[in-house]
Amino acid sequence: MEAYFEILGYQYKAYLNRYIYIPFLGKEKIGNDIYIKNIFFFKKEKLMILGNPIINNIKIKARIIKHFRSKKLIIFKKKRRKGYKLKKGHRQYLTQIKIISFEKK
């Protein structure tokens, strides 16, 4: 089983019992279950459902595993022959979720 869904403005592909890293869900606590309702595409063996734009009768149950910060990304800007250099780092807050099940409403 697989599904394509949208959460916080980003689209992801979900498989059963797989882990996904999504943008930070600050209000949710570790161990809580969340339900994702914005599903665009669902596939189960020979059954395929395509939303127009979303599928209303299927939802994804996921469990929050942990909140963390990603690896540091270095932002480096330079203008040649001007002596201008700028180096910054950025670490994005992320949430790891595990897909538990696909449920019908």
TrEMBL record:
A GO term (biological process) for this protein? translation
Record has ATP-binding as a keyword: no
Molecular-function annotations in GO: rRNA binding; structural constituent of ribosome
**Where is it found, in Gene Ontology cellular component terms?**
cytoplasm; ribonucleoprotein complex; ribosome
Q: Tell me if RNA-binding is a UniProt keyword of this record.
A: yes
InterPro entries (UniProt xref): bL21-like, bL21-like_sf, Ribosomal_bL21, Ribosomal_bL21_CS
Q: Report the SUPFAM superfamilies cross-referenced here.
A: L21p-like
Record keywords, A-Z: Ribonucleoprotein, Ribosomal protein, RNA-binding, rRNA-binding
Function, in words:
This protein binds to 23S rRNA in the presence of protein L20.
Q: Which NCBIfam families match?
A: L21
Regarding protein family, the annotation reads: Belongs to the bacterial ribosomal protein bL21 family.
Oligomeric form and interacting partners: Part of the 50S ribosomal subunit. Contacts protein L20.
Q: What is this protein called?
A: Large ribosomal subunit protein bL21
- Name of the gene this protein is made from: rplU
